Amino acid sequence: MAKATSKTPIVAINLAMRAGSIADPADAPGATWLLSRVIDRGTATRWAAEVAEELDSRGITLTINVSRHLFSLVCTCLAEDFAAVLALLGDVLMTPSLPEAEIATRKGEVITAIRQDEDNPAVRATESLMALLYPNGHPYGRRTKGSVESIETLTRERLSRLHAERFAPGGLSAVIVGDVDASRARDEVIRVFGDWRKSSSSPLVLPPVTPATSRRRVVISMMNKAQADIAYGFTTITRRDPAYYAFWLLNVAFGQYALGGRLGDSIRERQGMAYYVSSALDANLAEGPLTIRAGVSPVNVDRALASIDEEVARLAADGLTAKELDESRRFLIGSMPRALETNAGIANFLQNEEFFGLGLDYDVRLPALLDAVTLDDVNAAARRALDAGRATVVIAGPYDERA
């Protein structure tokens, strides 16, 4: 997919492979994450130092991301360097050499990052919440980086097998945006990837998601910390659910942008109980979570939880006001041009369109999709998703519920 823009002589390249963390073997969580740390450390035709030099000499920072479903290589380069950089990224993506020494180094870095996460109340609360919402080995409930134990056992052979099984041309989506003719961009993509002959593995099937039927609460004691972090949530809907736009607008008004939503206004501004509080909706291929996160003083944990329960119950019972719906709609429509200000932003938007099958005119249709959502639609979404009696709650930090 290519889109030509000539405001500046630069090109954004976004290569996304359908091989995110859900591709981790059940007995090797974190394998995809470790692969992402070593995939650019040498190829069949380039040493690691050559890859780094070729990027550095052009002033390019290569970002490699792993989400639940996608493994992405993203960078921005000068238009004159586009063909050479695309060829380099193709080499990295298709034929990584995965040197043993580089794997050992990156394993050490990943293990350090995991240990830092294990000492972070916010991360512990969020990861534990996901494990509770998506139990029994569901990929959404697994830690993206894996565990110290799982990373230590990973071998070059295991990473090579993962790459061989999950990286194939049928799973690649290439988006090119910038000062390059669209037909030339397509020709270069074909030149780089056209001879990649490899059968794709069977699509990964996600297990069904079962919503909670009762309230669950877990406390992770970290008494040496100064702040307690709360993660509170529900499973909701898939991205393709027709109610998605109602849920999106609901979440914006509830707390997606912290101080601009109900949660921030009540818990942080009026009551002064939280260092931060916000909500997030992550509708995906499977039913994604709606989560509320807050950082509070240990003495305010119970009061903050009671206030979250109160806001959840009030939203489910009374819904949004017409003013809140209108403000949320205007905010989302008004923020779209800002998301498309840069070539990289446009490329990311187009990858999202491709992944969820939204159509290349999605940016044109989006305002009408949001305008079509009624107050009844949003309030039905609130009743469908929000019930404090079915909430899953995790508290991590210096909190003792027996006190």
CATH architecture of the largest domain: 2-Layer Sandwich
Number of helices: 15
Largest sheet: 5 strands, mixed
**β-strand number:** 10
What's the SSE pattern?
Answer: EEHHEEHHHHHEHEEHHEEHHHHHE
Count of discrete domains:
2
Q: Report the end-to-end length measured between terminal Cα atoms.
A: 58 Å
Shape: globular
Low-pLDDT stretches are none
- Name the CATH superfamily classification of the largest domain: Metalloenzyme, LuxS/M16 peptidase-like
| Helix fraction by DSSP (H/I, runs of at least 4) | 40-55%
CATH top level of the largest domain?
Answer: Alpha Beta
Summary keywords:
about 400 residues; alpha+beta; Cytochrome Bc1 Complex, Chain A, domain 1; 2 domains; 5-stranded mixed β-sheet; 15 helices; about 15% strand
Overview of this protein structure:
The chain is of the alpha+beta class and 403 residues long. The chain has two domains: 2-193, Metalloenzyme, LuxS/M16 peptidase-like (Cytochrome Bc1 Complex, Chain A, domain 1); 216-397, 2-Layer Sandwich (Cytochrome Bc1 Complex, Chain A, domain 1), CATH 3.30.830. 46% of the residues lie in helices and 16% in strands. The protein is built from 15 helices and ten strands. The strands form two sheets. Strands 1-5-2-4-3 form a five-stranded mixed sheet, with helices on both faces. Strands 6-10-7-9-8 form a five-stranded mixed sheet, with helices on both faces. The longest helix is centred in the first third of the chain and has 19 residues, at 100-118.
